[in-house]
Specification:
The protein has about 240 residues and is an alpha/beta fold. The chain is built from 8 helices and 12 strands. It folds into 2 domains: about 110 residues, Rossmann fold (3-Layer(aba) Sandwich); about 70 residues, Orthogonal Bundle (Arc Repressor Mutant, subunit A). It has a 5-stranded parallel β-sheet with strand order 2-1-3-4-5, sandwiched between helices. It has a 4-stranded antiparallel β-sheet with strand order 6-7-8-9, covered by helices on one side. The protein is elongated, with a radius of gyration of 19 Å.
Length: about 240
């Protein structure tokens, strides 16, 4: 599944689907992602540092490259610049809560989009398909009323004006918008946004929702509603 030192054959018929090359120092994250994506017909190969990423880009000719913002040996921005100087392979950047500066630099260097780390296949799959040749028709932005969330640019616009959201707030807003007009429980939010099964700190969700409302101008809680003792629901205006 994950063989950083061994390249599969790419000139015959050995590939059964698109190839995603993942450069991430945490092998466990890559292994979990590989299991999830291979169920969707996407082959995954992993490397642990930036130097190996460049070598395997040349050897494997992946359809998409996913690099972690924090890479040893050769950093993510340097990898993206090197790839962009010689190849057209789409590049996604995996970012954590404190990688906002890396995200800006990586997008400037030529990354196609950012994705939250640790990786979750439901969020990653649309970006992989959109980044691949012929995938331009995939939906890259979603809208609810005057709020538009752009997955490719990792931006949120309210009535056409760009609003900055920290990564976790962006993920939470994305989750609510994907389930518009449906109630999502606090447990679902903790599991899918915080990647955690624990619900003892659900006050954290309330704080994040309050901040999102303020950034969106939702001062009367009409756009993001609280469903008492259950969770939250984002509703279509009107």
């Amino acid at each position: 599944m994950i063989q950083p030192q061994t390249a599969p054959e790419v000139n015959g018929d050995t590939r059964t689907g698109p190839l995603l090359l993942v450069a991430d120092p945490e092998a466990g994250l890559v292994a979990d992602l590989a299991v999830a994506l291979e169920r969707e017909g996407i082959e995954v190969q992993g490397v642990g540092d930036g130097a190996q990423a460049l070598l395997q880009v040349g050897a494997l000719h992946p359809d998409v490259l996913l690099v972690s913002a924090a890479l040893p040996v050769l950093g993510a921005v340097e990898v993206i610049r090197a790839v962009r100087s010689s190849r057209e392979v789409p590049v996604l950047l995996g970012i954590g809560d404190h990688d906002a500066e890396h995200a800006v630099q990586a997008l400037t260097a030529g990354a196609n989009a950012c994705v939250a780390r640790p990786y979750r296949s439901p969020e990653l799959l649309p970006l992989i398909h959109a980044a691949m040749p012929g995938g331009g028709s995939a939906r890259k932005a979603i809208s609810v009323g005057h709020v538009e969330l752009d997955l490719e640019a990792y931006q949120v616009r309210v009535a056409g004006e760009t609003v900055h959201l920290p990564l976790r707030e962006f993920e939470l807003l994305h989750y609510l918008m994907r389930h518009v007009d449906r109630t999502v429980t606090r447990e679902q939010i903790m599991r899918h946004v915080w990647n955690s099964a624990f619900t003892t700190s659900t006050n954290t969700i309330a704080v994040h929702v309050k901040r999102i409302r303020a950034r969106l101008g939702d001062h009367d809680d009409r756009l993001i509603q609280t469903v008492r003792s259950v969770g939250y629901r984002m509703v279509t205006p009107g």
